[in-house]
Design goal:
heterodimer; A: alpha/beta; eight-stranded mixed β-sheet; 14 helices; globular; B: 289 residues; alpha/beta; two-stranded antiparallel ribbon; 10 helices; 18% strand; lipid biosynthesis (chain A); cytoplasm (chain A); lipid metabolism (chain A); EC 2.1.3.15 (chain A); transferase (chain A)
Chain lengths: 322, 289
């Protein structure tokens, strides 16, 4: 698969193209130019390191939305065995923007749930660009309750621009579906490990992200509103999205500093899409570590800790009032 | 000057634009729904509901509490919790400055006022959103006051009522504001454990992160007539689906029809209605109006 380069990666793209050309030439050339190729490859790596060493929030959000980025089903396929997808909310429909089911993680039965984006135009439409409707959240809740019934840990993967803003979604209670999940997840009697793998878009993300451990990939984002949305409200123009992205603090590093997430999982050089196997290996270790810590706790300890964590969100000052 | 203006005697010439009227400001109110010109005192005596067309005007948090609670035995909860500018957020305006200016314009220091009191002698804790304060948006202070309100309800073994009027999460606090959705929903699990009622009253407007957290978690969910209630704003939906929205879309009556709320209640009946629900749930005799 040919790598798609983002606009700020153009210098890398040019080098990579050159390497590609040389490789092509080398195939039917008597002269050995492998040394030259090696040199350029090294240069490309260094360039990538430099560029990725100082990404802005906007650039990170571009990587988070990269069309070749691994999606939930890629992680499930790589991290789990025996995945049995379960469908439908039993009330209205099966929402393809959220996938979930039973699987084995390191041999242990788990419930996996995540937003799913599509790879090509048709698939993207089928997955509704990873924007769930109420039935998606209700399916997720059904699977979580199923996990609770059988004592299975829940792994969730977050990757959505947000819950779908549509007429039908509103009519079927988008708000209620999200709120219900927040309520139920706060007291779900099994461990929940959440990882933001791409876009953590607002309430639509949070609705499957109330976890005991919340992790984010290095180049993923998590925000209360999209930078474009924030900019168009507070700056009256979507063009100020880069400023909004910086101001809100949507990147993993910043959110870790603010104490809103537990762990940042490092990505391969140039982002998760540049090296799937390496990404999967780091992810597997991170989830295994998180699960191990949680499974040492009793259910009551687990729930108390989750509740304390939820109550701890927020920064304010206290003054004495007469 | 046109020939008509020349003809008119000076006294009935229209006033220059921008000149002040001799009538004191605020004596009259023109209904934004039906256009009737109302004497403000009449409107206030009617709980800010238009006597001609029943349009429910937005009211401040304090006024709502005044209309809802018995005069005796009120005290405020969580007033000690005050906002901080976590991110040193600056868009066109600085968030820190905005907090100051909204404090001046509303008299509140954040968008939620919580009070313990009674409705027709039924003891309750009521949390009310102040829409005038940063669009009633939910940030850290709103979340914490909500939690303290629910905790007070649990400690006193009384029902909790929330009157929502909010544009959603407060983006000037970044992701912390999103987490208030999880926080407020989580504390309600404790209220539910104690089998204490949660009545959620949704007023104009209840949107976004407030709508998508505790708003629909009420044991009984009530809408005020005409209130706009929904997850995504109508403009966003229109831009996404590129269709015209159905008549009355996201209004309280529409939600009732779709099965999203239990009832639409006129503000003038609200006190009695809520007291009635609470006594029914508590297996107590009816209150007398």
């Amino acid at each position: 698969m040919k790598t798609t380069f983002l606009d700020f990666e153009q210098p890398i793209a040019e080098l990579e193209n050159k390497i590609e050309e040389l490789r092509f030439v080398q195939d039917d050339s008597a002269v050995d130019i492998s040394a030259e190729i090696g040199h350029l490859e090294k240069k490309s790596q260094e360039l990538t390191k430099t560029i990725y060493g100082k990404l802005t929030a906007t650039q990170i959000s571009q990587v988070a939305r990269h069309p070749q980025r691994p999606y939930t089903l890629d992680y499930i396929k790589a991290l789990c065995t025996d995945f049995e997808e379960l469908h439908g909310d039993r009330t209205y429909a099966d929402d393809a923007a959220i996938v979930g089911g039973l699987a084995r993680f390191n041999g242990q039965s788990v419930m996996v749930i995540g937003h799913q984006k599509g790879r090509d135009t048709k698939d993207r439409q089928f997955r509704n660009f990873g924007m769930p409707r109420p039935e998606g959240y209700r399916k997720a809740l059904r699977l979580m309750k199923l996990a609770e019934k059988f004592g299975l840990p829940v792994l969730t993967f977050v990757d959505t621009p947000g819950a779908y803003p549509g007429i039908g979604a509103e009519e079927r209670g988008q708000s209620e579906a999200i709120g219900r999940n927040l309520f139920e997840m706060a007291k779900l009697r099994v461990p929940v490990v959440t990882t933001v793998i791409g876009e953590g878009g607002s309430g639509g993300a949070l609705a499957i992200a109330v976890g005991d451990v919340v992790m984010m990939l290095q180049y993923s984002t998590y925000s209360v509103i999209s930078p474009e949305g924030c900019a168009s409200i507070l700056w009256k123009t979507a063009e100020k999205a880069p400023e909004a992205a910086e101001a809100m603090g949507i990147t993993a590093g910043r959110l870790k500093t603010l104490g809103l997430i537990d762990k940042v999982i490092n990505e391969p050089l140039g982002g998760a899409h540049r090296n799937y196997p390496q990404m999967m290996a780091s992810m597997k270790k991170a989830i295994a570590d998180a699960l191990k810590g949680l499974q040492e706790k009793s259910v009551d300890e687990l729930l108390d800790a989750r509740f304390e964590r939820l109550m701890g969100y927020g920064k304010y000052k206290e003054v004495s009032v007469a | 000057m046109s020939w008509l203006q020349k003809l008119l005697p000076p006294k009935i010439k229209s006033r220059e634009p921008g000149t002040k009227s001799a009538v004191p400001e605020g004596l009259w109110h023109k209904c934004s729904a039906c256009g009737s010109v109302l004497y403000r005192t009449d409107l206030e005596n009617n709980l800010d509901v238009c006597p001609k067309c029943n349009f429910h005007n937005r009211i401040s948090a304090r006024r709502r509490l005044d209309l809802m609670l018995d005069a005796e035995g009120r005290f405020e909860i969580g007033a000690e919790v005050r906002p901080v500018d976590i991110l040193k957020f600056k868009a066109v305006k600085r968030y820190g400055d905005q907090l100051e200016s909204f404090k001046e314009s509303t008299g509140e220091d954040d968008a939620l006022v919580v009070m313990q009191g009674a409705i027709h002698s039924v003891p309750v804790v009521v949390a009310v959103f102040e829409y005038g304060f940063v669009n009633g948006s939910m940030g850290s202070v709103v979340g914490e006051r909500f939690v303290r309100g629910v905790q007070a309800a649990i400690e006193n073994g009384v029902p909790f009522i929330c009157v929502a009027a909010s544009g959603g999460a407060r983006m000037q606090e970044g992701l912390t504001s999103l987490m208030q959705m999880a926080k407020t929903s989580a504390i309600l699990t404790k209220l539910a454990d104690k089998r204490l009622p949660f009545i959620s009253l949704l007023t104009d407007p209840t949107m976004g992160g407030v709508s998508a957290s505790f708003a629909f978690l009420g044991d009984v969910v009530i809408g005020e007539p005409g209130a706009l209630i929904g997850f995504a704003g109508p403009r966003v939906i229109e831009q996404t689906v590129r269709e015209t929205l159905p008549e009355g879309f996201q209004r309280a009556e529409f939600l009732l029809e779709k099965g999203a709320i239990d009832m639409v209640v006129d503000r003038r009946e609200m006190r009695l209605q809520i007291a009635q629900l609470l006594t029914l749930l508590a297996k107590q005799p009816a209150v007398s109006a």
